[in-house]
Amino acid sequence: MARRPQKFRNGRHNMDYVLLVVVLFLVCFGLLMIYSASSYEAGVDMEDPAYYLRKQALATALGIVALFFVSKIPYKFWQRFDFIALAVSIILIFLLLTPLGVTRNGATRWIDLKIGLTLQPAEVAKIGIIIYLASMIQRIEELGKNILRTPKGLAILMTPPVVVAGLIYIISSNLSSAIIIVGIAVAMLFVAVPDYKWFIIIGVVGLAAVAAIVFYAAGPGATGEGSFRLGRVRAWLDPESYSTDKAFQTLQALYAIGSGGLWGKGLGQSMQKRKFLPEAQNDMIFSIICEELGLFGAVTIILLFVVLIWSCMIVANKTTDRFGSLLVVGVMAHYAIQVILNIAVVTNTIPNTGITLPFISYGGTSSLFLLAEIGIVLNVSKKCK
User: Fold this and answer.
1) Picking from 62-76, 113-127, 231-245, 367-381, which range would have the lowest pLDDT averaged per residue?
2) Which run of H or of E encompasses 102?
3) Per-residue pLDDT averaged across 329-338, rounded?
4) R_g of the chain computed on alpha carbons
5) Between β-strands 118-119 and 101-104, what pairing exists: parallel, antiparallel or unpaired?
6) What's the rounded Cα separation, in Å, for the pair 261 and 259?
7) Which residues neighbour 203 within 8 Å (Cβ) at sequence distance 6 or greater?
8) Tens digits of per-residue pLDDT, 356-371?
9) Coil vs helix vs strand at 101
């Protein structure tokens, strides 16, 4: 008897459905938690408990449309726009200096699109760097040159990401996005370059620099008053001493995490979201998850992110095309870095840097481009062997 052909991994069915289901669950859960975390504050300030939910739902709907649209576009199509992606990222960052720049909470990080929507250039830059580096690495490898094995070659490839990250930090004071962009670039080059000794050297130098900053911040001669970043480091080292200003949000997040216990207080029952934890729907939403759903809910969400990242890793390993594989590595690095840093900030493992939790924190531009990146991964998965 002839075997029936397996069609699940063939043609248009060749998509990672586990990845898609996990992402859609995280998106729906994110909308639920945004409403739970923001309803009290929105009800008091906006007289509309669903204010933030509605705005996020619109961005999410656009993101899901983008996901399925991008998943239909052959991923090789994006390689034609490698330099354009880099150029557009830089141009958008400079537009923050024009009247189109929108300032919120003392930082100019958004562009007014004049259609009732804003765009955050840092989110565009992340996917732009992924496309640019994936294309450049493949082009260099096709030429058969060993430039990737040399410090000069690594420096040349790292220059555009570092420049973009520097512009984001200088123009928009967005250190978290700058760190993520550099982290994405390092992860992609680490996968592409077979010689790891340069990355070990970079890692050692980087850790030494971080240690020097921490020791300086902890020293008696540094008050942290003249430097916003230095003040955050000191607040991280001794949050109780800064409980009324720099460490206020961090301490409130820790109170939320500690009060949740194993099973949590119940969905919607958070006390910290009642004006104790500022803008709980943004960077600190993980603490509200811990408070309402407890350790069980927090671990479940972390495991879902592990499945998401693992699914991306499988797609990257099984893809026969170098450009497609590097695209997925870049997306995977983006998610992994952002999840790790967000949870580390919320738990005061590292100083507060304002990093959102993918698919869950409030943020329209972030959700839109995160979902578009999933569309790219799903299209690459169609070419898995």
Assistant:
1) 231-245
2) strand 101-104
3) 96
4) 22
5) unpaired
6) 6
7) none
8) 999 999 988 899 999 9
9) strand
Phi/psi for 305 (5° steps) reads: -65, -35
Alpha helices in 219-284 (DSSP H): 228-237, 248-260
C-alpha distances in angstroms, 334 versus 176, 198, 308, 309, 366? 12, 22, 12, 10, 12
The more confidently predicted of residues 29 and 108 is 29
Closest CA to 346 of 282, 284, 296, 294: 284
Q: Name the amino acid, one letter, at 34.
A: I
pLDDT of residue 223: 53
Q: What mean pLDDT, rounded, does the chain reach?
A: 86
SS3 at position 30? helix
Distance between CA atoms of residues 350 and 335, nearest Å: 18
Cα(14)–Cα(192) distance, integer angstroms: 25
Q: Are 56 and 31 in contact (CB under 8 A)?
A: yes
Q: Which residue is listed with tokens 């923050």?
A: 96
Please calculate the CA angle 73-77-79 and round it to the nearest 5 degrees: 140
* CB-neighbour burial class of residue 115 (10 A; exposed 0-12, middle 13-18, buried 19+): exposed
Please tell me whether the overall predicted TM-score, pTM, comes out greater than 0.85 for this model: yes
**Which of residues 87 and 108 earns the better pLDDT score?**
87
Two structure tokens written together for 103: 């300032």
Tokens of 228: 């916003």
Q: In this structure, are residues 172 and 108 in contact, taking their beta carbons and an 8 Å threshold? A: yes
Show the DSSP H helices in the chain as ranges.
17-45, 51-71, 82-94, 121-142, 151-172, 175-192, 197-218, 228-237, 248-260, 285-318, 322-346, 364-381
